[in-house]
Amino acid sequence: MFSRSAGRLFNKSSMLGARRTMATAPQKVPMSIHEPNKYINYQRIQDNLEIVRKRLNRPLTLSEKILYGHLDDAVNQDIQRGVSYLQLRPDRVVCQDATAQMALLQFMSAGIPDVAVPSSVHCDHLILGEYGAESDLARAKEVNREVYDFLATTCAKYNLGFWGPGSGIIHQIVIENYAFPGALIIGTDSHTPNAGGLGAAAVGVGGADAVDVMAGIPWELKCPKAIGVKLTGRLNGWTSPKDIILEVAGILTVKGGTGAIVEYFGSGVESVSATGMGT
Prior knowledge:
It holds the Pfam family Aconitase. By secondary structure, this protein is α/β, with parallel strands linked by helices.
């Protein structure tokens, strides 16, 4: 969604709260209820955007505001859509249990005592759905006991959040507990963009990218192009957000969306819920 319609992405009262916070930075706002001593760096976002606006001298889309607000060096960073490679400082890293194993092993080899940004591991991918929730979960805990023990103890040692088997699907946990308007989140799963339902820029990455950020290294991303989709009318009857994305995917094709962020704007977004926008 483009900037003038950004307020429709999430609850208006939440958006007003975010605006007040940015206007009165560096007021301390906790990153989440699970991390009361880690704070959202609104001051960095505000300072970076002031620099970028002067440099580009044009309006910014919502995704650009989020990405450029997290630049490692806003003064010297080259910014050309589809050309430049941005050096970014994400707010959070989220990992699912299958990819987290190698990512944490690599992080451990760095010899760093603590993760540089708030991070978490979510145990949902190794549960095989076969007979029913109760029996499938019990079987997963037994079969994957060594993996779960490794992830739990490693998270405790290096200060990562740990969501054990049975706690829920990673993407729903993230949108309910960790996402917030203006956040830049990377996750080791292709469905990480689900957190965009709350106005975050959430990107699926490989384990190596996650390790870099957890170790305090800037995350490199080719500057995305912007694709705007104007929605009009309202969802009703048997229609759902899935119908919208299937239509968009059909128009763009898989290749057409590569290297771009799709932003929705227009009056039509008002009938789409937060979880619908995650879709």
